[in-house]
């Protein structure tokens, strides 16, 4: 979902205004916007590791039988830190076993940083042709690109999908005969004056049937099929081309590398389509709580694992060794109720101090290189 949302939101300004400066801004700002929070999060983890801030993390991992809570190994030298940081941004594939990915707790999820960084430059190329292409050939061209990138197994499959959703939502949705632009105007979204496509009754019905069908397929394969036959859960990865052999992809390893999946794509794309087509859903998601949590998304991914195994390990030790709590269920509940708000508070602080600073620095840099 997050990667599709990158394509949906990264070029929102360009989709609305059709000005080339918006494309340039995304390219210039993205490296700084991502590099600053990631570099400082790695530095924070390094400080905590060096100062024994993860003292009780190993015990926490052992008691919970969760090796993801193991503390990361400290850097050998500054060169290792620098190289690991660069590899996190420029590695050609979303590997889960790189030094930097393993260094950021929990569960080797930091591979998404590489995708978030590189895919913006991918969607910029596709976005450039949008103002010069009529509706019919947008549908044919982008549908073909999504299918081909899915077959090759590239993350552009997801981000181009998000870009198509952005184009549809901003440019064409208000032109559908059964939709009023009033609700969209209240949200302050701008419209581009283009010749509207003609939607007949069948096409209007398909705008509801297609998202529901995609959600059904996604749920069927992601949850029902995985629960019924877990040994075949990753067999869908066979349905991609292997660029090395020219045959099907048979040597995949989802433990060591993150792959775009068909079930995830169907489920997430169907949900986003329903949201884009529903004013009520958009009004709910535009409420203060969801906007607040969405703003913290990047910070939560970078910092929550660190908080959990540092402060969470300290809390776990206090419950077990000081208060002598022996009920595992009670321990888990106390830790859950304590750490969730703590992680949100830390993510909010990190977002205000680090993310916002990186964003302001990126805007300053873009202004600097233009003047």
Q: What would you say this structure looks like, in words?
A:
- This protein has 371 residues and is mainly alpha-helical.
- It has one domain.
- It is globular and about 70 Å long.
- The relative contact order is 0.14.
- Keywords: Membrane, Transmembrane, Transmembrane helix.
Largest sheet entry: none
Low-confidence stretches: 178-186, 190-196
Which shape, going by the Cα principal axes? globular
Given the structure, what is the number of helices?
A: 16
Task: Report the mean per-residue pLDDT as an integer.
Answer: 84
Overall radius of gyration: 23 Å
Protein name: Acyltransferase 3 domain-containing protein
Transmembrane segments: 34-54, 109-135, 155-172, 209-228, 289-310, 330-350
Keywords: Membrane, Transmembrane, Transmembrane helix
Q: Summary?
A:
Helix content is 69%, strand content 0%.
Write the layout of secondary structure elements.
Blueprint (H helix, E strand, L loop, with lengths): L1 H8 L2 H6 L2 H31 L6 H8 L13 H13 L8 H5 L8 H16 L7 H18 L3 H17 L9 H5 L14 H28 L33 H16 L1 H7 L2 H8 L1 H26 L5 H43 L1
Helix pairs in contact: 1-9, 3-7, 3-15, 3-16, 4-15, 5-7, 7-9, 8-9, 9-12, 11-12, 12-13, 15-16
Throw out a few tags for this protein.
mainly alpha; 0% strand
């Amino acid at each position: 979902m997050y990667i599709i949302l990158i394509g949906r939101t990264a070029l929102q300004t360009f989709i609305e205004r059709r000005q080339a400066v918006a494309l340039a801004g995304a390219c210039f700002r993205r490296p700084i916007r991502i590099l600053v929070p990631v570099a400082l999060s790695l530095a924070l983890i390094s400080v905590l590791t060096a100062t024994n801030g993860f003292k009780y993390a190993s015990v926490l991992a052992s008691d919970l039988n969760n090796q993801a809570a193991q503390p990361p190994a400290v850097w050998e030298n500054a060169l290792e830190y620098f190289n690991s940081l660069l590899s996190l941004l420029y590695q050609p594939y979303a590997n889960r076993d790189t030094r930097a990915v393993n260094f950021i707790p929990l569960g080797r999820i930091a591979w998404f940083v590489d995708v978030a960084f590189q895919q913006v430059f991918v969607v910029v190329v596709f976005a450039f042709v949008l103002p010069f292409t009529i509706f019919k050939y947008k549908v044919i061209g982008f549908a073909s690109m999504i299918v081909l990138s899915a077959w090759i197994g590239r993350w552009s499959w997801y981000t181009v999908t998000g870009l198509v959703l952005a184009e549809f939502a901003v440019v064409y949705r208000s032109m559908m005969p059964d939709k009023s632009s009033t609700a969209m105007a209240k949200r302050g979204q701008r419209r581009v004056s283009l010749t509207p496509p003609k939607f007949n009754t069948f096409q209007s019905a398909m705008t509801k049937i297609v998202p529901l069908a995609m959600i059904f397929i996604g749920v069927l394969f992601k949850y029902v099929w995985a629960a019924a036959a877990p040994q075949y859960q990753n067999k869908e990865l066979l349905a991609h081309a292997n660029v090395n052999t020219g045959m099907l992809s048979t040597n995949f390893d989802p433990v060591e590398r993150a792959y775009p999946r068909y079930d995830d794509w169907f489920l997430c794309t169907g949900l986003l389509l329903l949201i884009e087509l529903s004013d009520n859903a958009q009004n709910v998601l535009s409420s203060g709580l969801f906007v607040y949590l969405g703003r913290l998304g990047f910070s939560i991914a970078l910092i929550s694992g660190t908080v959990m195994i540092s402060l969470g390990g300290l809390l776990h030790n206090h419950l077990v060794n000081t208060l002598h709590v022996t009920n595992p269920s009670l321990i888990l509940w106390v830790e859950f109720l304590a750490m969730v708000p703590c992680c949100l508070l830390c993510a909010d602080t990190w977002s205000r101090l680090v993310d916002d600073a990186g964003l302001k620095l990126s805007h300053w840099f873009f202004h600097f290189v233009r003047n």
